[in-house]
Amino acid sequence: MVPPKKYAKTAKTAPEGYETPNKFFQCVFDDKEMIWMGQNTNHLHDEDIIKDAMINFVESKEYCKYPPPEGFEELKELILKDLELENMDILITAGGTESLYLCMEGILEPEDNVITSDPGYLIIDDFASRFATEVISVPIYSSDNDYKLTPELVKANMNENTKIVVLIDPLNPLGSAYTEDEIKEFAKIARENEIYLLHDITYKDFAREHFSPADYVPEYSITVFSFSKIFGMAGLRIGAVISIPEVIQSIRSILINDLGTNVIAQAGAIAALKSKDNWIGKVTSITRNNQILIKEMVDEIEGIFIPVYPSDANMIAIDLKSTGINPKTMANYLLGRKVFTRQGNYTSNLFGDDYLRVSFSIPEEDVKIFIKEFKEGINVLKK
Ligand SMILES: Cc1ncc(COP(=O)(O)O)c(C=O)c1O
Questions:
Q1: I need a surface site. Which of 112, 132, 337, 339 has the fewest CB within 10 A?
Q2: How far apart are the CA of 13 and the centre of ligand 1, in A?
């Protein structure tokens, strides 16, 4: 018998009525009518450029060959150009998730600790806890610190064993983003204390502004990149990790996907980056307008509020605490009405009972259905 490993709590639990988390996800995936506001995915790509590039690749049948193990050179160059980080090194991975894991394994020694935030993306804590002595998850759900992990909070929580500070920018689930001054301040902390800043930029292109620690402290910056959100390619499982050659060299030595990443996904990713200017304006403007509609609805309901508005990501949290409605109850109610959202405990161990997370890079008509169902849900569940 192999005993289960004891890591930080994993986020996936089966909702009521489902035998396993996987059966739940299968059921939601299979339901073609389900409105998809639960995974921060992007359903707004109606152009065919990415799809056609993948179909062309399939038709070439070149998928019988292994790809270059670290990714197609063209894709590597396009990502670095997109980020204006041409002097850095890069590995293509099967998504930001794999990149996060590789960073933790590649950098951490057993005596180290890692600073993350709560709320935050909990799988990062889980990965960190596999390699570090401690994960210091700093509570940030407060207007006192603008609902984000500030440089001051990092200074107050770090110690001589801190090796990585995780900055999710913009933050899943709240949508808070960092100013240029904050990024500069983090860079200063990193340089003075020889700490790595793990900059998870999964939601970067939804933000109004974006600043990179790699511009200020490249030697202590690692950037985690994903094609799942703005590019609308979550199911293709593709991303990257970017840092200075020494860090990437360390990661190379612990690679699992030694034979490379899915070639069809890479062909789609190349087309996605090359065509970005053609579609990004449309995707961000629909997303931002959807956010306004949700805000107007929230403002009409007494007591509930959006902690971070506007959100710089494609999701927001709606704080339900004053209604007495548990976010899990609301998420289950909405699921029954074919709207998939996420209760807070998916992204928080401390504040999970406070908020519901909804993502809105979906067609406006679907957001309107959500608004109707959510309002009804408040009335029904309050009783
Ligand atoms: C902050 C953050 N990082 C990484 C990921 C996962 O990205 P990928 O789909 O590229 O593995 C997510 C997914 O929701 C996320 O919210």
A1: 337
A2: 18
pLDDT digits (tens, 9 = 90+) for 311-348: 999 999 999 999 999 999 999 999 999 999 999 999 99
CA of 39 to the centre of ligand 1 (A): 9
Residues of the chain with pLDDT under 70: 1-12
In three-state secondary structure terms, 279 is helix
Architecture of the domain spanning 21-46+278-382? Alpha-Beta Complex (3.90)
For ligand 1, say whether the CB of 173 is within 6 Å of any of its atoms.
no
Q: What is the pLDDT of residues 50-64, one digit of tens each?
A: 999 999 999 999 999
pLDDT of residue 6: 63
Of the candidates 301, 362, 310, the one whose C-alpha atom is nearest the C-alpha of residue 330 is 301
- For a mutational test of ligand 1's pocket, the pick from 228, 242, 316, i.e. the residue with the most ligand atoms closer than 8 A to its C-beta, is 228
Q: Which of 111, 158, 151 minimizes the C-alpha distance to 131?
A: 111
Q: Cα(2)–Cα(362) distance, rounded to whole angstroms? A: 43
The domain limits of the chain are 21-46+278-382, 49-276
Cα(236) to centroid of ligand 1, in Å?
A: 13
Exposed/middle/buried for 232, CB within 10 Å: 0-12, 13-18, 19+?
Answer: buried
Distance of CA 61 to the CA centre of its chain: 32
| Tens-place pLDDT, residues 237-280 | 999 999 999 999 999 999 999 999 999 999 999 999 999 999 99
Domain 49-276, CATH: 3.40.640.10
Tell me, what's the pLDDT at 14?
A: 77
Q: Tell me how far the alpha carbon of residue 96 lies from the centroid of ligand 1, in angstroms.
A: 5
pLDDT at position 345, please?
Answer: 95
Closest ligand 1 atom to 124 CA:
3
- Give the position, in ligand 1's atom list, of the atom nearest the Cα of 39: 14
Q: Which residues pair with 199 in a beta bridge?
A: 167, 223
